[in-house]
Amino acid sequence: VGLGTAHGCHSRSCQQMPFAGSATATAETGLPAGRAACAGVLAYFAMAAVRNRKWRLATRLRLATAEVANGKVSASETPVPVWVINLDKSVDRWEQCLKEFATEHVHAERFPATYGKTLPKDELKEKVTFGCRYFCTPGMIGCFLSHRRIWERALSEGHAAVVALEDDVVLYPNFNKRLTSILSELPPDWD
Predict the structure, then answer these.
(1) Which is higher by pLDDT, 95 or 6?
(2) Residue 2 in contact with residue 17, Cβ under 8 Å?
(3) What is the spatial distance between Cα 175 and Cα 130, in angstroms, rounded to a whole number?
C-alpha cells in the first residue's frame, strides 16, 4: 500500500517505501530531489533499531490504531502528525502542499527546513560524518539534518510515529485511509 509517488531513487529499498517521495530534480545535481531522504530513511531504521526506552513506538502505535479501529478517531482523519519539510524561501512550494493536502483532507504542519548551503563549516563538522562532508551536497546535508530534527521533535513530544514529507510531495488518493491501514498492519515488534 503506497501513500505517494516514488521519487525515482536508485535504492531499491527506497523505491519500495510506502511513503510519498519527491517529484522533481534538484538544480544543483540533476538527481531526484528526494534522493537525499534515502540517508534519512536508513538512519531512521538504524535509530529505531536502538530500541531507546524513551520511544516505545509499537505500544503507543497499537493504542493509536486501536482508537481508529474502535471508532474513537475517524478513519478520514490523519492518525499521526504529518510534518512537511519546507525551506523558508520556498513559499510557493508550501502553498502547493496546502492545496494537495486540502484535496485529501490531511492536516499537516510546516516544518522549517535546514538550508544546507548556509551552514557554517564548523557546524557541518559537528553534525555530519567526515565522509558525508565530502561526498554529500550541502542540499543533501540540509535535507538529512531537517529529517533528524523531525526525529528529535517526535522524541521530545512523545509521538509514537510521525509522517515526514518533503514539500514536493504528491499524495495518493485516500492518504489517511492508506496510512491508517499501514499503521494497523505493522507487526507488534516492528520497532
Answers:
(1) 95
(2) no
(3) 38
